[in-house]
Amino acid sequence: MIKQKAPKDMTATEFVEHLELVASREMLAKNTEGWAITLQGLHKELSEPAPNPFTPDQLAWMRETQRSGYCFVAMDTGGNIWCYATKPFKSFDSWEEKEPDRFPIEITQFMFFDKFLSWDDPEPICFADYAPLEEKK
Length: 137
Known about the structure:
Layout: H1 12-24, H2 32-47, H3 56-67, E1 72-75, E2 81-84, E3 89-90, E4 95-96, E5 105-106, E6 125-126, H4 127-130
Antiparallel strand pairs: 1-2, 1-6, 2-5, 3-4
């Protein structure tokens, strides 16, 4: 008996491209208009940005933290959550800043970040990506 291999996990974009390939085959040519509308809708959804995962209170906290000079957050190997003034890089067991102008602060008490952070993350979270400060006029 031949063991069937598990299918490869696909990204959403790869899945839509796969659907386009399937739709282009002759057996689906009978309903090409329906497939075109479906694929167009999927492409539109893929091009839209993901919804902001943070609550309004969490976003307000991020804005205030940015105003105090801390703009990035990351988790170390021990599960502790730290805020940084400049973008840190990953070292052996923690995140470090190249030229820190302020010491990082531990913010483990703000545990809402534990749902969004992991030591395995390749980049820290930038507050400005989710809670940009209003431009001064």
